[in-house]
Amino acid sequence: MESSTPRIDVDVAVIGCGTTGLTLASLLGKAGIKVAAVDRSRLQVPHPRATHLDDETMRAFQALGLQHLEPRFSPVGKYRFYDRRWRTCMEVPLDRGYTEQGWRSNYMFHQPDWEATVRGELNDSSSAEIFFGWEVTELSEAEGRVEVILQEVSSDQQRALNAGFVVGADGAGSFVRGAMGCELTDYEATHRSLIVDIMPLVELPADLPDRDTFIQGGITNPLTYVPIAAPRLRFELMLRPQDDSREFERVDRAYQLLAPWFKADEYRILRDDVYEWRSIVPSPWRRGRMMIAGDAAHTMPPMLGQGMCSGIRDALNLAWKLPRVVRGESPIELLDTYESERRPHTTTFVEISARLANEIEHLQPEAPPEGIAPPVQESEVLRPQIGPGVRDDAAEPTGVLSAQPKLDDGRLLDDAVGFRFAVVGDPETIAAAGEGTRSAWERLDVAVPAGRHEEVIEWVRSLGAGAVVIRPDRYIFGLAESGADLDRLTDRLAAQLAGAGLAAEAA
Ligand SMILES: Cc1cc2nc3c(=O)[nH]c(=O)nc-3n(C[C@H](O)[C@H](O)[C@H](O)COP(=O)(O)OP(=O)(O)OC[C@H]3O[C@@H](n4cnc5c(N)ncnc54)[C@H](O)[C@@H]3O)c2cc1C
After folding, report:
1. pTM for this predicted structure
2. How far is residue 331's CA from residue 329's CA, in Å, rounded to a whole number?
3. Pair (44, 178) in one structural domain
């Protein structure tokens, strides 16, 4: 690096702009933090990897101001398990309609369109410097800053960033994670699948449902079918250890796979690749001024459709903590709670999806006898508690994702409070908080929606409380039954944001 090359000062450099990095860079930009958004690809991902998002992720998109995209997302239907003779063994309805999150339980979306939208928005943001088509080649931390060397992929040009913090959202093979020297825990579910995405050019055949998903087990290569963002379809074959990926990637294999439903001239193949899934959680997630997020911090098989959703949760967690630290409102130790809160939460998803991936390999589904309807199983809703960190030291629902009721004027709660802490509930309980507590709310920029909001009160009462303190990432900080409880919770919040007891919480 030539010493004459000017260094560009930024508060945070986000390395890697997939779904995690884009979410984080966008939220930091909206918070007025000077952010560099770096990705080695000039353009958004050409083909989707993630296709499914849950209601919590839709709520994150709402925080990004992207709720207008919802009509472009596709609904989901049922999940069916078939045996080798195509008899139904079990059915799981996946669409639970609009949930307590204010959004549908599940959607299918087109990742390239979503990435293009956020990339474009970052380009127009006065807080963001974009480096799309630039790769990070060196990182070094000294004297409270991180020097980031960027190399343009299409030329020999270099740039240097002088960053207060670096977040590596640079995927499963993370360069930043390597520079941090993390250790990896392997949950031992490494599998390969052939993924064939197609755009049908004809009507779908009757036996290929347009919103229902299926998995056929008990065959050599278990087959999964997913109608992704309409009108695209995805077919997945799980490979056995002895299977040769190159054999499976031959295009005649894709034609053969699709032959039961389509003639080869009835669709366009969008992708036809073998993926390897691993189930890995590295640690630490922070070393000094460098952090990892998204697939860099956890990878899991796609059985729950939660890899991207988990990375977006990481982004929301960092998106309220980093600005506080950058502005000097909280000490750097606040960032230790990122891993202590998020790692146990994500590990739940990694463990379950690893178990499911291992089970599918050996699945021998049994259809019920002739004349007996297959069992219908409810889909499991996973809302684990975050680990210790910035929250009350209490059992669930403390530390669990809050609901998003509507206010009496029809607005969704998050739209009314913004990306901030909030105190909501019974106006009498809130009014009973002390004067000192009210000043603390002002000082800490806590939103307290005025007035009486029946849906909010109903939700708060269902938790056995009079008021709830919600964090900007929508997780519950604590529950209060009285004004005195609110005083105690607010003291705890103020102390934790100032750094008190954080080391103990994060340990
Ligand atoms: C087939 C498939 C289906 C899936 N389905 C789902 C699903 O339905 N729902 C779900 O939630 N998840 C799903 N997942 C998982 C999901 O795709 C990932 O968890 C998610 O995309 C990870 O996002 P990320 O931003 O953390 O990482 P990535 O998307 O991997 O982004 C990392 C970015 O970093 C950039 N980069 C890497 N190194 C450098 C460097 N040195 N310098 C600059 N830039 C760099 C890359 O160009 C890339 O853009 C699926 C995954 C696969 C493979």
Report:
1. 0.97
2. 7
3. yes
Give 167's contacts (C-beta < 8 A, 6+ positions apart): 12, 13, 14, 15, 21, 24, 176, 290, 291, 292, 293, 318, 322
Q: Decide: 15 in ligand 1 pocket, CB within 6 A.
A: yes
Dihedral sign (CA 320, 324, 330, 332) = positive
Same domain assignment for residues 314 and 456: no
Q: Which amino acid is at 478?
A: G
Q: Which atom of ligand 1 is nearest to the CA of 22?
A: 25
- For 195, which DSSP code? E
Q: How far apart are the first and last CA of the chain?
A: 39
Measured distance CA(83)–CA(99) in Å, rounded: 32
Q: Going residue by residue through the chain, which has 507 residues, state the pLDDT in tens, using 9 for 90 and above.
A: 555 677 899 999 999 999 999 999 999 999 999 999 999 999 999 999 999 999 999 999 999 999 999 999 999 999 999 999 999 999 999 999 999 999 999 999 999 999 999 999 999 999 999 999 999 999 999 999 999 999 999 999 999 999 999 999 999 999 999 999 999 999 998 899 999 999 999 999 998 988 999 999 989 999 999 999 999 999 999 999 999 999 999 999 999 999 999 999 999 999 999 999 999 999 999 999 999 999 999 999 998 999 999 999 999 999 999 999 999 999 999 999 999 999 999 999 999 999 998 888 777 878 898 889 999 998 889 999 999 999 999 999 999 999 999 999 999 999 999 999 999 999 999 999 999 999 999 999 999 999 999 999 999 999 999 999 999 999 999 999 999 999 999 999 999 999 987 766 677
Residue nearest atom 33 in ligand 1 by C-alpha distance: 16
Asked if residue 460 has its Cβ within 6 Å of ligand 1, the reply is no
Phi, psi of 91 (to 5 degrees): -125, 140
Q: Which residues lie closer than 8 Å to 194 by C-beta, 6 or more apart?
A: 221, 236, 237, 239, 245, 248, 249, 253, 257, 272, 273, 274
Residue 97 forms part of a structural domain: no
Residue numbers of the domain that contains 231: 191-277
Verify whether ligand 1 is closer than 6 Å to residue 292 (CB atom).
Answer: no
Question: Do the domain assignments include residue 380?
Answer: no
Return the structure tokens found at 122: 């970052």
Report yes or no on 375 lying in a domain.
no
Residues 426, 350, single domain; the answer is no
505 and 496 Cβ atoms separated by less than 8 Å: yes
Other residues' Cβ atoms within 10 Å of the Cβ of residue 80 = 19
Structure-token pair, residue 306: 């939660």
Q: What is the SS3 assignment for 298-313? A: CECCHHHCCHHHHHHH
Instruction: Give the count of domains, the chain.
Output: 3
Q: Beta 467-470 vs 422-425: how paired, if at all?
A: antiparallel
Q: Specify whether 330 is located in the same domain as 229.
A: no
> Is residue 234 in contact with ligand 1, taking CB distance under 6 Å?
no
For ligand 1, pick from 119, 225, 295 the residue to mutate: most ligand atoms within 8 Å of CB: 295
Specify whether 60 is located in the same domain as 148.
yes
